[in-house]
């Protein structure tokens, strides 16, 4: 058997002393100790228990076939169009497919779109028109703008305002909602040729314009925007 030298014995005794000191200070783990306190975890747990998730949004739900409508679902429509008329029935059909639809809100949006389209056409702003028109109507507008530009003609136009805008018909065509409006507006408009001479309209006179425009939207799409799908100028 070998012999321990003095240094080895000294370090061994020191290790034993340190072990018992640590045991007295830290104690033993019995399995019943409280877990360490995490203030951040505790704050999150308390917040989660008292608050609802902020990213949960209730969206209008499309009713299933045969499912009865809520009692107040058509209140705004019945106040806008007389019950049992074709217009009322058409608006109700749109409401069934698009719970967020409101006729007065629709008219407000259509009036803004009307002004934007009229001015974009006068300015030859194809980018704005593309976002507001159906493909067929856009192609027609762009063709007219191109013809005007080829002749170096320009439209000088000022939008005065809309006197009246009424929904005259509404219907569902498959999954697509169609709403037609009769719009009476006031414009100052004149077309000038390459030399600057007025060839149509009057730059000094406010003219009354009567249009019948139809807007449509696919109610099956997440896109909430309506687009102009048909235009007709009323004499």
UniProtKB/TrEMBL annotation:
Coiled coil: none annotated. The keyword Membrane applies. It holds the Pfam family Tim44. The keyword Transit peptide applies. Residues 87-233 form the Tim44-like domain. Keywords: Membrane, Transit peptide, Transmembrane, Transmembrane helix. The chain crosses the membrane at residues 6-26. Its main location: membrane. It is found in: Membrane. Residues 31-55 are annotated as: Disordered. Belongs to the Tim44 family. This is Tim44/TimA family putative adaptor protein.
């Amino acid at each position: 058997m070998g012999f321990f030298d003095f240094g080895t014995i000294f370090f061994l005794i020191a290790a034993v002393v340190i072990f018992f000191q640590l045991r007295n200070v830290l104690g033993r783990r019995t399995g019943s100790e409280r877990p360490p306190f995490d203030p951040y975890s505790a704050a999150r747990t308390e917040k989660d228990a008292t608050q609802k998730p902020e990213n949960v949004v209730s969206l209008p739900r499309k009713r299933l076939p045969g499912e009865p409508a809520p009692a107040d679902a058509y209140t705004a429509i019945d106040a806008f169009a007389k019950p049992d008329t074709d217009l009322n029935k058409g608006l109700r059909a749109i409401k069934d497919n698009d719970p967020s639809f409101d006729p007065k809100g629709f008219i407000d949006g259509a009036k803004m779109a009307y002004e934007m389209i009229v001015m974009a056409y006068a300015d030859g702003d194809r980018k704005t028109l593309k976002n507001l028109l159906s493909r067929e109507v856009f192609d027609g507008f762009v063709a007219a703008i191109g013809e005007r530009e080829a002749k170096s003609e320009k439209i000088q136009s000022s939008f005065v305002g809309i006197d009246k805008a009424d929904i005259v018909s509404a219907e569902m065509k498959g999954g697509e909602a169609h709403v037609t409006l009769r719009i009476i507006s006031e414009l100052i408009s004149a077309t000038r040729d390459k030399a600057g001479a007025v060839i149509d309209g009057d730059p000094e006179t406010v003219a009354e314009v009567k249009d019948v425009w139809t807007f449509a939207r696919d109610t099956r799409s997440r896109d909430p925007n309506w687009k102009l799908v048909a235009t007709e100028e009323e004499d």
